[in-house]
Amino acid sequence: MDFLERLKSLWPDNAKPADFYNKIDMSASGFSRVWKDGAIPTADYLIKIQEVTGCDLNWLLTGQGSPYMNKGQAVEVRTHTDGTATDTLGNPINLDEFVFIPRYDVYAAAGHGYPAEDDKPLFCMAFRRYWIENYVTRQLDKLSVIAVKGDSMEGVLNHGDNILVNHAETTPRDGLYVIRIDNQLFVKQIQKLPGKLLVKSANPVYEPFEIDLTDDNQNVAIIGRVEWYGRTVN
Q: How remote is the C-alpha of 183 from its chain's centroid?
């Protein structure tokens, strides 16, 4: 069940698009992107959906957990009719202080490459707006989160890590980048050399290789710079 199917399940079976967008004060044109393309609404509309239906936003966005909030359990964010929200301890938070960045079901291989496919976001991840705008980029639409697959960057980026990719940074300099070679995505350490790039792995099992920047026939693209990673501690 995808996001749209979960959203539809919160309304009666014969509900029409107008029944949805009128309830959450969304424009018909804006909701058509949700209804036809499976786009994820912005945070303020997600909050209104929760207010109207009582759904659990984690379930709505990811499909994990129960469709409706269990009032006997703490939830990560509690929303109110005035648009404010509180954390699990009841402290007020301002959602405008956060940027909600789409997390895609796409992997950048720390190994031998992973197919690069366009996809719809699974859910959004929240980052502090101040940090993003002052230390990453003000081009918020140029950001996405994907996952790492493989072991070639082990010790720097591990299998399963989430990485924040800045797609505004496509002119390579020394650092970690997601690159596309043919139809494969890689996350690697890049070193800029005259007329070429040296592509290195953290795992010595994987040999470094070079990309000739003067060869126009190479199907190579810099997808973006890695700005942050998140990891589950096992």
A: 20
Clarify whether residues 79 and 107 are in a common domain. no
> Do 60 and 132 fall into the same domain?
no
Q: Do the Cβ atoms of 34 and 4 come closer than 8 Å?
A: yes
Q: What mean pLDDT, rounded, does the chain reach?
A: 82
SS3 of 92-124: EECHHHEEEEEEEEEEEECCCCEECCCCCEEEE
Q: How many CB atoms lie within 10 A of CB 140?
A: 15
- Mark whether 140 and 216 lie in a shared domain: yes
Answer yes or no: is pLDDT of 77 > 60.
no
Beta strands in the chain (DSSP E): 78-79, 85-86, 92-93, 98-109, 114-115, 121-128, 143-149, 162-166, 175-181, 184-193, 196-200, 209-212, 220-230
Where in the sequence is the domain holding 49, given as residue range(s)?
3-93
d(CA 54, CA 27) in angstroms, rounded, equals 21
Burial class (CB in 10 A: 0-12, 13-18, 19+), 120: middle
Looking at the fold, whether 82 and 150 belong to one and the same domain comes out as no
- In angstroms, the CA 147 to CA 159 distance is 8
pTM: 0.62
Which two three-digit tokens encode residue 169? 């940074």
Tokens of 174: 């020394």
CB atoms within 10 A of CB 165: 25
CATH number of the domain that residue 132 is part of: 2.10.109.10
Instruction: State the DSSP H helix or E strand holding residue 52, giving kind and residue range, or none if neither.
Output: helix 43-53
